[in-house]
Amino acid sequence: MATRTPLVVGNWKMHTNFSDAMVLMTQIKNNIESLQGIDIVVCPPFPWLYPLAEALHRSAPRHFSLGAQNISQHDNGPFTGEVSASMLTHLVKYVIVGHSERLAQFGETLQTTNEKIHAALRHRLKPIVCVGEHHRSDNSGQEILKQLEIILDGITKHELEELALVYEPVWAISGHGGSPANGAMVQSVAQAIHEKVSDIPRVLYGGSVNADNVAEFMAQPDIDGVLVGAASLKAAEFIKICELAQYE
Ligand code: PGA
User: 92: buried, middle or exposed (CB in 10 Å: 19+, 13-18, 0-12)?
Assistant: First the structure.
């Protein structure tokens, strides 16, 4: 296991109604309170962020935070339907950028991801940056490092320290019929990332993570946490994942 404090991120995607979201967040918060040596972030849909942030106000454990699933690369302007980083500064601490679903379904590119990282940093949000290849290959590490040259362009050494990077192969995401990568393969990519961009504190793995396989990923020396989609919608399973991921 890595020696950096693990980060577990729940990406709720476009799921939950308001009351489910409140119950889910409250159950998670109440049950992870006693965990130590871990940071936990849940990323609900935009409309729930304000009421959930209000509900957390004063009672959130220090290691539990809200994140957004996306932001605009622009600070303000005529961008119908978009939400800027400055609008979220007081609601969330983290924001996911560059998720493969944004790239595949909403016309975003690696350049857009780069612009969104800059936008997040301008407004003191911590970017959780996703990167991943489309198809299984023996060359994943090389492909990821190439993508990172575009994604991280112009980000200073100091700014890199604010980032978490998620290695999330598109073929491993459960919502698209994927199955998880294996620990050794993920370790080799994470190691290549840590070697190339040593200023990024944490490299996470994402793609079909659940309570049964999280230990395999967390056992890898270069994996510092996980990004969880489907399994983050089940309170008991997500809590179990957090327990198994904590650094002891
Ligand atoms: P999954 O989703 O855990 O359901 O595979 C992860 C993600 O897309 O962030």
Answer: buried
